Amino acid sequence: MKCDGIWKVEMIGSNGWERIATAFMKKGKYMAAGTNHYSVGSYTQDGDNVVISILLKQQGVLRTVFGIKSPSKLDITIKGKIRKDKITGKGKAKGAKKHEIQIRLSLLERFK
């Protein structure tokens, strides 16, 4: 399955899965945004494996994410597996020591 499409992005939190963004993935490019952040980057796909590399920029109230007292910018790598209309995996921020967050993306729509 190709990754090109519009995706709901969620991460696991203390209260379960939290919707954090809507992502657009097309031809190796990744763009996403939520209410207090946006991210840009790229992705590579090898069969059912996908690696997403992004620069996340926060505005407003900064959150502690990935075990780091978050600066306004974070370099994040997500490694995941594609299964049907979902990508599941873990994300890790550059500079975070062993702290990974479970992330899932659910396909909302394919690009035509």
Indicate the topology.
Layout: E1 5-13, E2 16-26, E3 29-33, E4 37-46, E5 49-58, E6 73-83, E7 86-93, E8 100-109
Antiparallel strand pairs: 1-2, 1-8, 2-3, 3-4, 4-5, 5-6, 6-7, 7-8
Give an account of the 3D structure:
The chain has an eight-stranded antiparallel barrel. The protein starts with a strand and ends with a strand. It contains no helices and eight strands. The model has no long low-confidence stretch (mean pLDDT 88). It is mainly β.
- Total strands: the figure is 8
Report low-confidence residues grouped into runs of 5 or more.
none
Biggest pleated-sheet summary:
8 strands, antiparallel, barrel
As a whole number of angstroms, the C-alpha radius of gyration is: 13 Å
- C-alpha geometry: globular
Which characteristics define this entry?
112 residues, mainly beta, 8 strands, 66% strand
Question: Care to give the gist of this entry?
Answer:
The chain has 112 residues and is mainly beta. Helices cover 0% and strands 66% of the residues.
